[in-house]
Amino acid sequence: MSGTADLLLDVRGLEVDIPVAGGTLHAVRGISLAARRGETLCIVGESGCGKSLTSLALMGLLPPSAKRRAERLSFAGEDLLSASPRRLRALRGDRMAMVFQDPMTCLNPSLTIGDQLTETFLRHGKGNTRAARDRAVTLLERVGIAAAANRLGQYPHQLSGGLRQRVVIAMALMCGPDLVLADEPTTALDATIQLGILQLLAELQREMHMALVLVTHDLGIVARIADRVAVMYAGQVVEEGTVGDVFGAPRHPYTRGLMDCIPQPGRTVPGTRLGTIPGMVPSLVGELRGCSFRGRCPYAMPACAEPIALREGPDGHSWRCVLPAEALARAA
């Protein structure tokens, strides 16, 4: 693993609370993450577990009602918690960029593709209008859009969903950022296009040697492109480690349940039923205590009702469970 000199994103104890009618929604609870230059970190989990809010909190793009706290939240050694709004605006789009879920909602329908691509480049003083347009054409070609120069004069509605998503990726890369957060960038796309988009992101990450934090629920994609993976459930990271460690020997029952839900070549017998995780994700409103997965866990015990700290092995593989790792392996 790279040293601390390559550490770009360092997050410790990140929390996001949102006031709601019934009390306070504890959407993100004590998240700790790290992303290094040249590394791909994937955040996985089912819908509603707090993945997207985590990425928005990292970028400082939460709604006004949301309250963000953290023990540490730094980018390239700079404290983002104490940074002024002006400083955050200087970082966003320049050294930190984000690829949003739905290109139809993050692209302005009243502006041309060219205007939207060049805006960030010009705002951050990277060059003049001609340089910005040249950069836009180069990146559109790099993300696989033909006749790129002609696309600059088109509007978002004139492009297909796959092309719009490629435009959004090109937009995020306009200033050559060190860190890119991609929040489920293939959600609005057909299945036949999704793999190509994610492979493109992985290829660009290697080429530009940037850190990529990818939010997704597709474990197959994670296995292909990630270096490290963080598994989220009910606003918490319940397991984190290298892809080989987490997928090869999951130490949290939720991770094991996710793995059992997908067919695995060479291990899943054709015609057999895939696994399921019974029950529902618990409410995160009000006071929370103990393991949030215990109501759905087949290995739940009385100790699960008490606070459970994140345990870390000597290999850097961490998990939040009172069950010994070898016991879960034997049960599986």
Name the descriptors:
8-stranded mixed β-sheet; 12 helices; 2 domains; 332 residues; globular; 32% helix; alpha/beta
How are the strands ordered across the major sheet?
7-8-9-3-10-11-13-12
Spatial gap, N to C terminus:
30 Å
Which structural class matches the secondary elements?
alpha/beta
Topology, number of strands: 13
Q: Which quaternary structure do these chains form?
A: single chain
Mind explaining what this structure looks like?
The structure is a single chain. The chain contains 12 helices and 13 strands. With 332 residues, the protein is of the alpha/beta class. It has 2 domains: 4-86 and 179-331, P-loop containing nucleotide triphosphate hydrolases (Rossmann fold), CATH 3.40.50; 103-174, no CATH class. A hairpin with a 2-residue loop joins strand 10 (228-233) and strand 11. Helix 4 (113-123) packs across helix 5. The chain is globular.
